[in-house]
Automatic annotation (TrEMBL):
<keyword id="KW-0769">Symport</keyword>
<dbReference type="Pfam" id="PF00375">
    <property type="entry name" value="SDF"/>
</dbReference>
<dbReference type="InterPro" id="IPR018107">
    <property type="entry name" value="Na-dicarboxylate_symporter_CS"/>
</dbReference>
<feature type="transmembrane region" description="Helical">
    <location>
        <begin position="41"/>
        <end position="61"/>
    </location>
</feature>
<keyword id="KW-1133">Transmembrane helix</keyword>
<keyword id="KW-0325">Glycoprotein</keyword>
<dbReference type="GO" id="GO:0005886">
    <property type="term" value="C:plasma membrane"/>
</dbReference>
<protein>
    <submittedName>
        <fullName>Dicarboxylate/amino acid:cation symporter</fullName>
    </submittedName>
</protein>
<dbReference type="InterPro" id="IPR050746">
    <property type="entry name" value="DAACS"/>
</dbReference>
<dbReference type="InterPro" id="IPR036458">
    <property type="entry name" value="Na:dicarbo_symporter_sf"/>
</dbReference>
<dbReference type="GO" id="GO:0006835">
    <property type="term" value="P:dicarboxylic acid transport"/>
</dbReference>
<dbReference type="GO" id="GO:0015293">
    <property type="term" value="F:symporter activity"/>
</dbReference>
<feature type="transmembrane region" description="Helical">
    <location>
        <begin position="160"/>
        <end position="179"/>
    </location>
</feature>
<keyword id="KW-0812">Transmembrane</keyword>
<dbReference type="InterPro" id="IPR001991">
    <property type="entry name" value="Na-dicarboxylate_symporter"/>
</dbReference>
<feature type="transmembrane region" description="Helical">
    <location>
        <begin position="81"/>
        <end position="102"/>
    </location>
</feature>
<keyword id="KW-1003">Cell membrane</keyword>
Length: 434
């Protein structure tokens, strides 16, 4: 008998977790769930925390070091990286604007938000104390804090992820500047480490259905208490949250990218969408930019007329460093969780989310579920309770499919822009939508 695909297993785990949680509330099994099921959800969260630092470190070093093979094409590389970073920042800011306008986290009843706030009162007090301490420091202190005085101390604290990212960028650039024969074994080492970590991600995702079941069962029990009907409030608010994320993703595909394709790429956007459509559908079904990469390259070359010299560099790099959809989702999710816990994020905290989400997207693995791992980084850097991830796991699979579609569309958009500015965009062959 054919094994169910992972996303179906996760969806079943979600449904069973919600069902078990509501049944526990009805039958008085809340304590049993808290003692014997919920801890497995905590273990799943801890596994995600476990790989956050090594995943970012190895992925970033590998991605930056790969530029050494095309050092003579610095002009194309600069255009590509700057454009990727610009679109990522734009996506994060768009997400923050939407989540601050619609405030989905505040859709919880005041009573529930007070319960969440009390549950993590210690975290909130600690965050307030930290903010007060920061106010007494100089205006450049945030920049000072990015540079670690001890790498190994930074690596022991997921809240110091910006320091790890700084070192990874610094180290990757150094690998480009030293002689290739000296850099090759180091690059090969980190490439091997990166491959091993991605395999660990695969293993963790194998137990994801069980972790999701335990997380949601515990969440529903905590949320509903002895009143199963209270779980309906959770489902309604999650629906509102999903709508906000989807609006942002649709704005990227139907507002931001069309402007870039038409103004800079000087191409018809309808033609562009038709050409990239097969890759979009594969991205939607696999939730993996890496798995979709061959199809994205084929569509870009055959359907959009982009020269192979551009696609062979811009698109693989994009699958590693350009995660517009994921970055937008992270900004919405982070503020949503903060709103749900009654944590007010000031402008400085939200600018920190912009920086962290942008840099974390560079190190995000192009595999299903990597967005959640990167969200752990964003939450911890912003001082938002990581346990809040349980709130958004239920609809994450659907959103993952949609944000991956946005990710690869963004890759193709940048490839077209770079190709046009380099004079390497040619009349495409006949488009065949599969």
């Amino acid at each position: 008998m054919k094994k169910l695909a992972l996303h179906w297993q996760i969806l079943i785990g979600m449904a069973l977790g919600v069902g078990w949680g509501m049944m526990s509330s009805s039958l008085g099994l809340n304590q049993f769930t808290a003692d014997w099921i919920s801890p497995f959800g905590t273990i799943f969260i801890n596994l995600l925390k476990l790989i956050a630092v090594p995943l970012v470190l190895a992925s970033l070093i590998t991605g930056i070091a790969s530029l050494s093979d095309i050092s003579k094409l610095s002009r194309i590389g600069t255009k590509t990286i700057v454009t990727y970073l610009a679109t990522t920042v734009l996506a994060v800011v768009l997400g923050l604007v939407l989540v601050n306008i619609f405030e989905p986290g505040k859709a919880f009843s005041p009573q529930k938000r007070e319960e969440f706030k009390e549950q993590y009162a210690a975290t909130t007090v600690e965050k307030s104390s930290d903010a007060a301490a920061v106010e007494q420091l100089g205006p450049l202190q945030p920049i000072v804090d990015i540079v670690p005085e001890n790498l190994f101390m930074a690596m022991t604290n997921n809240g110091s992820m910006l320091q790890v990212i700084f070192f990874a960028l610094f180290f990757g650039i150094a690998l480009i500047l030293i002689p290739p024969d000296k850099a090759a074994p180091v690059s090969a080492f980190f490439d091997g480490v990166n491959t091993a970590i991605l395999k660990i991600v695969d293993i963790i995702m194998m137990v994801a259905p069980y972790g999701v079941f335990a997380l949601l069962a515990g969440l529903v029990v905590d949320f509903a208490g002895d009143d199963p009907g209270a779980a309906l409030e959770l489902l309604m608010v999650l629906g509102y949250y999903c709508i906000v994320v989807i609006i942002g993703l649709l704005l990227m595909i139907f507002a931001v990218y069309p402007i870039l394709v038409v103004v800079i790429g000087k191409s018809n956007y309808k033609h562009f969408l038709k050409g990239i459509f097969p890759a979009q559908m594969l991205a939607f079904s696999t939730s993996s930019s890496a798995a979709t990469l061959p199809a994205t390259m084929e569509c870009a070359e055959k359907n959009l007329g982009i020269n192979k010299e551009i696609t062979s560099f811009v698109l693989p790099l994009g699958a590693t460093v350009n995660m517009d959809g994921t970055s937008l989702y992270q900004s919405v999710a982070a503020v949503f969780i903060a709103q749900a816990y009654g944590i007010e994020l000031d402008l400085a905290a939200q600018l920190g989310i912009v920086m962290t989400a942008t840099l974390a997207s560079i190190g995000a693995a192009a595999v299903p579920g990597a967005g959640i791992v990167m969200l752990v980084i964003v939450l911890q850097q912003a001082g938002i309770p990581i346990e809040g991830i349980a709130l958004i796991l239920a609809p994450d699979r659907l959103l993952d499919m949609m944000r991956t579609t946005v990710n690869i569309t963004g890759d193709a958009t940048v490839a077209m822009m770079v190709a046009r500015t380099e004079g390497q965009l040619h009349p495409p062959t006949e488009i065949k939508v599969k």
